[in-house]
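WARN retry 2 of 3 for item q-0093 after timeout on previous attempt; input resubmitted unchanged.
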Amino acid sequence: MADKDGNIIAKDYGIGIKPPHQHFHVKGHDNAGWGMKARLSQIFAADGRTIMLAFDHGYIMGSTAGLERLDLVIPPLIEYADCLMATRGALRTCIPADNRRAIALRCTADSSVLKDDMSMGVVGSDIEDALRMNASCMAVQCFIGSAGEIASLHNLSYYVNKGERYGIPVLGVVAVGKEMERTTRYFALATRLLAEQGAHIIKTYYCENFEQITAACPVPIVIAGGKKVPEAEALDMAYRAVNEGAAGVDMGRNVLQAECPGAMLQAIRMVVHENAKPEAAYKAYQTLMKDVK
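OK item q-0093 returned
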């Protein structure tokens, strides 16, 4: 039986070695069914990358700076995103039903920021709701290393099992609570664990030696933006992540709390889909910001 202390630290990541060729453009899903591939293609562009706009913060944080009026701030940004990550409540009340962007539906119901231990989540929106909401994927919060680890993995298994049955991918979200690590070793463990449990996409945080994490994960990884940082720093993080194997970004506060969210999302698009250097993207952001004003 493997154990935490006796396990040899992995080191042969094959950095720089291209994976075997596959016909489908989304990593690790050459053998998926047609419906699964159709939904993954809604999320990921032909280059295998995606820009997700996250505005699901309110489900644990309540009203958040930049997200006070979703009905006002989100619709103008939709055209610059590939996928919208939101709760069913936000979608039903604030997003036009003629939206044609992919939907990452936040499905688990998790503890609020008022709790010291936020790892006690349950099944929230079930598979029928995901179908009714025309979800492209179902997002599931997972707390590896926390008191609620096994419960969150049970939730993940529920959605993976149902998703495989109905052809809906699952986005496994690596949660980092107040007491949890933010190290390369932790993220490598968590991302691989969720992928092996059947998650079709992984959302995690950027960290040192990030190329090891993406190399060892058999499905696409998108990075979380996390707390607001200066715009140039967020663009640099996005650039480094995609150049170290990430399949895109899932950013919320670093877009919505920017001085000009529309310009910021367009600059991120330049980095992710056009391989623009962060300096060029930031310069474009400054120009776009003036045009918007």
